[in-house]
Specification:
With 314 residues, this protein is of the alpha+beta class. The chain folds into three domains: 96 residues, Alpha-Beta Complex (DNA Primase, Chain A), CATH 3.90.580; 114 residues, Alpha-Beta Complex (DNA primase DNAg catalytic core, N-terminal domain), CATH 3.90.980.10; 80 residues, no CATH class. It is 36% helix and 17% strand. Helix 3 packs across helix 4 and helix 5 packs across helix 9. It binds zinc ion (ZN). The site of zinc ion has 9 residues, from loops.
């Protein structure tokens, strides 16, 4: 069995609720608990066990991931040790010497993204918060739940305490300057982490003030997920795309929690339908459904369309 297969089998075999209970976490009826990774009075730690993949996520500190990540954080083990612990627990033989370096490397990249999002979250300036409140109407809950942060420098120094520079460059959160020095990829931007199944998979920075470059900047590399993609639930009749991440969050604020996500693709690739009656409520002017007639124009939309069998409504 390859390591990737092993990981998938382990994730399938492990009941995340049982695993968390074994680690002394008291889940309530809604699969919520006080977070074991930070101090709190109200439960922010959530288990998601009804989808295809089980994962945990804490709205307070942003810790999240699968069973392997849970063990890693709880027991302060390496990725390999956590995998070995879970393989033993599930009675699956595992040859540790054959652990695929590529698999472990992917995990390390993912850790860098999570650490970066956490750092930016801790750097959210009062100006940026004010902009999110007044300019966008975002509540502190939205800012917290979506781990919105601010890039104001200092990431390179912060990450250097825990991760090799090459890994941070590969993750895309640092870039090489002309003089050969590494520096932060995002600067003077509001940062929106993209979460997928409890893990940070990308970051988007929105320009503030004198930030150079485009208004929105994503980390380099192929975009494999959409912002708020976890909101897509199999069998749901509708999926809306918004033009930008703030539009998506405005919709979340209006309780469109389960159906919204944002396209990272140019809006012009889709045909938009306007909803003038909702404009007064602060809903973005343009909302789009996936359109059968246009799905060929965008491989990602097509993939999603086929995966989810989304009906076209226009
Ligand atoms: Zn937490």
């Amino acid at each position: 069995m390859s390591n990737r297969d092993l990981i998938n089998v382990i994730k399938r075999e492990i009941d995340l609720a049982d695993l968390t209970r074994e680690h002394g976490i008291l889940l309530n009826g809604e699969n919520k608990a006080l977070c074991p990774f930070h101090e709190e009075q109200q439960p922010s730690f959530h288990l998601h066990t009804d989808g295809e993949e089980q994962y945990f996520y804490c709205f307070g500190c942003g810790a999240g991931g699968d069973a392997i990540q849970f063990v890693k954080l709880m027991q302060r083990l390496s990725f390999k040790e956590s995998l070995s612990f879970l393989a033993k627990r599930a009675g699956i033989p595992m040859d540790e010497s054959k652990l695929d370096a590529a698999v472990e490397h992917d995990r390390c990249l993912s850790d860098v993204l999570a650490a970066t999002a956490g750092f930016y979250q801790s750097c959210l300036t009062s100006d940026a918060r004010q902009y999110l409140h007044d300019g966008r109407g975002f509540s502190d809950d939205i800012i917290r739940d979506f781990q919105i942060g601010f890039a104001r420098g200092g990431l390179r120094e912060h990450l250097a305490q825990h991760y090799p520079e090459d890994l941070c460059l590969e993750a895309g959160v640092l870039k090489k300057h002309d003089n050969g020095m590494a520096r932060d990829f995002l600067y003077n931007r509001i940062v929106f982490p993209h979460l997928f199944r409890g893990r940070v998979v990308n970051l988007t920075g929105r320009a503030m003030g004198n930030a150079s470059g485009p208004k929105y900047l994503h980390l380099p590399g192929k975009q494999r997920h959409l912002f708020n993609e976890d909101a897509i639930v199999k069998g749901k009749k509708e999926v809306f795309l918004t033009e930008g991440i703030p539009d998506c969050l405005s919709m979340v604020l209006l309780d469109f929690t389960r159906i919204m996500f944002q396209s990272l693709l140019p809006a012009t690739r889709f045909t938009w339908c306007s909803m003038p009656t909702r404009r007064a409520a602060g809903v973005p002017e343009k909302l789009g459904n996936f359109l059968a007639t246009r799905r060929g124009s965008c491989p990602l939309a097509q993939e999603l369309y086929e995966d989810l069998r989304l009906p076209a409504t226009n």
